[in-house]
Automatic annotation (TrEMBL):
Gene3D superfamilies found in the cross-reference section: NAD(P)-binding Rossmann-like Domain
Family: Belongs to the short-chain dehydrogenases/reductases (SDR) family.
Catalytic class of the enzyme: oxidoreductase
Location of region: Disordered: 193-214
Record's compositionally biased regions (Basic and acidic residues): 194-207
Record key words, sorted: Oxidoreductase
Organism of provenance: Paenibacillus xanthanilyticus
Keyword field contains Membrane: no
InterPro entries given in the database record: NAD(P)-bd_dom_sf, SDR_fam
The protein, known as: SDR family NAD(P)-dependent oxidoreductase
GO molecular function: oxidoreductase activity
Protein EC: 1.1.1.-
Length: 254
């Protein structure tokens, strides 16, 4: 038994970012051809394309604004013309901003989180679900959520609001397109170790780790492994799920 994505086309938004790069490498290592979406970091996207090519997989770089429907539709057209119908959509991109209290957080930050979490999810569904449905071979939508959506800690309000809105879209979408064999799930990372931490030597945080049942932070590879699992046939009967990959730091209840 293995995660075999041979013959599949996967799109990862925010693919040039810390988590996105590892997701792309992991999906490609499982056999998928990959669409590498980026917003502004063309150099990292190009380097990632070279890595995927060295694995023997096809890779396409596409720049798009994930908060703009026309931009996402243009990305879909480019992908279908050059690679084909997308099988796996991973919504990973999100707007970054400085966190502060509800009373101090600029209104524009709430709008940015709504646009990059909720509307990105809507626009990706509108763009890519019809092709999956028409082809009749199923498909995968995987949203990257966060443990913060359950924690609701101080200074997280804009991020939590955006990700909770995303959660609503994904759960409803799971019901609406499930009859076509398309699964819709969310991966919710905890505070994850990435190359940024490795470069700075900031992998450890005793205060955070003390709250986690497994007593450590997770890694970018562990997040990517969960994405690859949900993208595979091994997860064919899982849909509508919010799956924390946070070492037990959050535990959704029944």
């Amino acid at each position: 038994m293995k995660l075999d994505l041979t013959g599949k086309i996967a799109l990862v938004t925010g693919a040039s970012g810390d988590l996105g790069r590892v997701m792309v490498r992991t999906l490609a290592s499982c056999g998928a051809d990959v669409v590498i979406h980026y917003n502004s970091n063309a150099a990292k996207a190009e380097a990632l394309r070279a890595e995927v090519g060295a694995m023997g997989r096809r890779a396409l770089i596409v720049q798009a604004d994930i908060t703009d429907q026309a931009s996402i539709e243009a990305m879909k057209t480019a992908v279908e013309q050059q690679l084909g119908v997308v099988d796996i959509v991973v919504a990973n991109a999100v707007i970054q901003y400085a966190w502060t209290s509800v009373l101090e957080q600029p209104a524009a930050d709430y709008q940015g989180q709504f646009d990059s979490c909720v509307m990105q999810s809507v626009y990706l569904a509108k763009a890519f679900a019809p092709g999956m449905i028409a082809r009749g071979q199923g498909g995968r939508f995987i949203g990257i959520n966060t443990e913060c959506a359950i924690q609701n800690f101080a200074n997280q309000s804009a991020y939590v609001a955006g990700k909770r809105g995303m959660d609503g879209v994904y759960r409803v979408l799971a019901r609406e397109i499930g009859e076509h064999g398309i699964t819709v799930n969310q991966v919710a990372p905890g505070w994850t170790i990435s190359d940024r931490d490795r470069d700075k030597g900031t992998e450890r945080s005793e205060s955070y780790e003390s709250t986690v049942p497994l007593k450590r932070r997770g890694t970018d590879q562990e997040i990517a492994n969960t994405v690859a699992f949900l993208a595979s046939d091994l997860a064919s009967f899982i849909t509508g799920a919010y799956i924390p990959v946070a070492g037990g730091n959050v535990m959704p209840a029944i």
